[in-house]
Structures are given as C-alpha cells and as structure tokens.
Amino acid sequence: MRRFCFPFFQLSLLLLISASSPLIFASELRIERLFGPEIATGPYKHPARIEELRNGDLYVVYYGGEGEYATATGVFGSRLKAGRHKWTTPQRIASDPFRSVGNGVIWQAPDGLVWLFYVVRYGATWSTSRVQAKVSRDNAETWSDAFPLVSEAGMMVCNKPIVLRNGDYLLPLYFEGGNNPEFTGADSSGLFLRYGAAEKMWQQTGRIRSATGNIQPVAVEVRDNFLVAYCRRGGNYEPTTNGWLVRAESRDGGWTWSEGVNSQFKNPNAAVDFIQLRSGNLLLVFNDSMNERTPLTVALSPDGDQTWPWRRNVAAGPYDYGYPLALQTRDGKIHLIFTSHERTVVNHAVLDEQWIQHGGPVKSWLPK
C-alpha cells in the first residue's frame, strides 16, 4: 500500500478548504408545494404572503375562491408551528357577505400586534376597491372585527410594511385606475401609508407618478430618510420590448417621491419584492422577463442599489411564477412565497445569500 505524506502547510490548506466548503457548496434551494386546487378553499390562490411570528410560527395568507373576479372569495390563513413540519389546513380569516375580497397581507409589528391588511372590491374591477384591516393580539390565533383603513375607491394593498429607522411604519399601497381587468391606467400610482408610533395614526404619503403608471411599490430605507422603491409597471399584457420595473426615490422618509423611471430590471407587468437583509445587502425578487412570469429571479446588491452583481433563478420553465414575497427569518434563512400554475398553487422556497452568490443543490417539486 502506498502512503502519502502531506507537508504541514498543505495539510493546513486542505483543512481550510474543507472548513470553508460548506459556505460555498452546502447551501441549497428547497421549494415545497404548500396548497393546490385540491384544497377546499377553491382552485384560485393568489397572491400569498408569509410572516414569522414572535413565537416562531410561520403564517401564510392568500385570497382564494373560484377565480380572481368571483364574488365568494375570502382571505385564508395557515400556520406552520415552530418545530413542526406540517402546515395547518387553511381557514377563512376575512370575508365580506356582499362583496369580493382580494389581496391579503399579514405582518407583525414591533409591538407584537399582528396586522391583516386586505382588499374589498365594491364593483366589477379592482379600480373600485378599498382597503380594510384586522388585528390580532395573540399571534394570529383570533382576529378583531374588520375596520376600514382607506375608503378611497381604487386603493389596494399587496406588500408588507417596513419599519423606518425612526420607528414609524410604512405600508405600501397603490391606486389602480382604468376600470379594465386587462389594462392598468396611466393614472395608476404607488404610494404609502405612514404610521406614527406615537400618534397611532395612518397618513397617506405623496404618490409615485410615472409615464405609463405603476402599482404595487416596495421600498427600502437605504440610509436615514433616503428610500428607494421599485414598482410594477402599468399598461397591458401585450408583448413588448419596453417593459421595465419602475424605480423612484424619497429623501424625506417616504413622504414625497421622485417621478418613477424605468430601471435596469425587466418587468412583465407583474409584482416584485424588495427587502434589506440583516447583512445589509438588498434583495430583489422579480420576473426577469418583459412578457412572461418566468423565470422568477433573485438578485443581491452589496452597495445600496448601486450594483447588482449576483442573480440566480429560483424557478424557471413553462409555468407562471408570480407575486413573490421575501422574508428573512431569525435563523438567517430567506423564505420566498409565490404562486404558480395559473394562480392555483402556493409555493414556499427556502434559500440563503450564499446560494444566491455561489449556487448549490436544488430540491424542488416544480416540474422542469
């Protein structure tokens, strides 16, 4: 038998490589199918949102029913208890006996209060919608009665609030005009509700205006009072070579916003998410296409939205992967919730920054 002897420096180098390899190669992407058409809430499930509660549970909401414009819709919630591996059967947590409800957003504030924001549609199109809310003081076990948050017609909610550095909350809203299910009018605009923790009041900010309209903004406070927002473009769903995410800035803590302009990122008239990770890196989740909701892509910026050197596809193929929402849990993992298969399936992905930067194994139920 031949014996091999390693000089000390070679052995040290080997140990160093072995120790560092998990950071580069052990990261993985895992995607699980949470709910599909077989769930009794109806075949339609879109969009879905996720939150980590103070007790360690994960909680998902979506609005469901027979279809996007069906009347008998509701917002449904499901829980993954801390340490468990099975999600609870979705239960209806918001509805209206006379009107259709839409997008639901769940979020736990720093004071422990859990907010459920959702849309109620008063007419045939989303341009007739208003925003309502409920709150829970027991980690989403029980809910208050519904109360109006915004009564102006055409107002909707889609994304979670952020906490500003001064402690105020900023909830993304948008006004959708046009009264057309296949076209978002040029007057459509992103805006926010700002909640003063001392006053306990929500106040509307100025709007993000852009040439063809924009909706569903998401913002990050990059430094004190300086915010960047990315928004879904307006317009229609016809093939285009000029479909981009709309970008805007605020220099006064989100009260007023610059005109929205086309960014470097493609957008097929689809939702996007944008958050700051605990590392300081910015994470953007979007469909890297002008005309299709595939692929679903994650990108990282290490320098406050100046450059985006890392991009990687989470889901790609013949299906639609839409309405992503990103959450970084206390263990540092990044959770993505998104829908697919013509808005009938809710998916849950788990990854980390190393996977975005270096790649790694993919364990997914999604067909290739």
Plain-language structure description:
This protein is mainly beta. It has a single domain, classed as Neuraminidase, CATH 2.120.10. Helix content is 7%, strand content 46%. The chain contains 2 helices and 28 strands. It has a 5-stranded mixed β-sheet. Strand 7 (114-121) and strand 8 form a beta hairpin. The longest helix has 18 residues, at 8-25.
Give the overall silhouette: globular
Major sheet characteristics: 5 strands, mixed
What is the residue-mean pLDDT, rounded to a whole number?
Answer: 92
With strands numbered from the N-terminus, the spatial order across the biggest sheet is 25-26-27-1-28
The structural class is mainly beta
Domain count: 1
CATH topology: Neuraminidase
Q: What is the top-level CATH class?
A: Mainly Beta
Detail the poorly predicted runs.
1-25
As a percent range, the share of strand residues is over 45%
Helix content: under 10%
Quickly give the CATH architecture. Answer: 6 Propeller
- List SSEs in N-to-C order: HEEEEEEEEEEEEEEEEEEEEEEEEEEEHE
Radius of gyration equals 21 Å
First and last CA, distance: 47 Å
Tally of DSSP β-strands: 28
Number of helices: 2
